């Protein structure tokens, strides 16, 4: 089992920045992919960014150039650096982790990000 704990959400003005953190614990050696999804009110959860064990990173088109995913292996932590935030980025952000064939096997509890106009 893997446990994921997110932090760093909050309220920010449009154009501002936030950094989300996700700390993994438990069977960490089983993780091959780790990343972030988000769910806006009334909408389905969607992919945001993901890093694979070979350090390959993928991003959703909607966040490319604004969001950066990084990892600190010593701290078992991934970060989502969010810049130039827009009101449409408002959502609950969820950390996920798992094998390459099932990267959403584990989900965190989510952290709210609200971007005001």
What's this, in brief?
The protein is mainly β and about 120 residues long. Helices cover about 0% and strands about 60% of the residues. It contains no helices and eleven strands.
Descriptive overview:
This protein is an all-beta fold. Helix content is 0%, strand content 59%. The chain has no helices and 11 strands. The strands form 2 sheets. Strands 2, 4, 5, 6, 9, 10 and 11 form a 7-stranded mixed sheet that branches. A 4-stranded antiparallel sheet has the order 1-3-8-7, with no helix packed on it. The termini are far apart.
Number of strands: 11
Quaternary form: single chain
**Distance N to C terminus:** 40 Å
Average pLDDT, all residues: 96
Highlighted features:
four-stranded antiparallel sheet; 59% strand; mainly beta; 117 residues; seven-stranded mixed sheet; globular; 0% helix
SSE layout and pairings?
Layout: E1 2-7, E2 10-13, E3 18-26, E4 33-39, E5 46-52, E6 57-59, E7 67-72, E8 77-82, E9 91-99, E10 102-107, E11 111-116
Parallel strand pairs: 2-11
Antiparallel strand pairs: 1-3, 3-8, 4-5, 4-9, 5-6, 7-8, 9-10, 9-11
